[in-house]
Amino acid sequence: MTGLITQRLAEIRQQLPESVRLIAISKQVSVDAIREAYAAGVRDFGESRIQEAELKQSQLQLPDITWHLIGHLQSNKARKAVEKFQWIHSLDSLNLAQRLDEIAAQISCQPEVCLQVKMLPDPNKYGWTVPELLADLLALDKFEHIKIKGLMTIPPQGLDTSEVLALFHRTVELADQIRQENCLNIQMQQLSMGMSEDYQLAVQAGTTMIRLGRIIFGERTV
Ligand SMILES: *Cc1c(COP(=O)(O)O)cnc(C)c1O
User: Which residue spans traverse the membrane (predicted)?
Assistant: First the structure.
């Protein structure tokens, strides 16, 4: 019998271009549900809290999973984050970048990160505004241990479809603009945008990574 998660994944994948990497967001999801997604072929999982991820990682013991941190990271947990996650989508300040880079140097690893940018003002979210990000670019380009791979964005609540699509298009343009700065270390190959409600718009705009939770695992209870 095919489970619900397996069915949902098949439906989603059918509409996705090859170039889009699907990250299953498993926050507040049981390890059994994660196992079903894994059995269906998912190898990228995202969590927003380090402790929760750590517990699941030890229960699952599946070494070929790539773990993605998608939630705000406090500086004092940066070391744990680098140890437990291969990707950090929620790099949201120069200070945190500095900290991650120091740790990556110390433990000789190269975490892949996205710069979280707010394309519209949003008091409820972390991240750089566009002018702030452009102002910090030169400083960010000096970090040699973290691998800055692209941009992550979350649209503010309450936008209509055309506004969300426009926001995603502007994010693509911002990545193009940054690419033209000819940075040494910063790369702009990846765009992490698109969640359950809006991933089709993100795909339309040319995203490379989508972060899907509820549409795979069902509504979260909390
Ligand atoms: C929870 C979360 C997601 C997944 O959201 P869904 O609406 O369940 O798809 C994606 N990205 C971030 C940053 C999140 O916090």
Answer: none
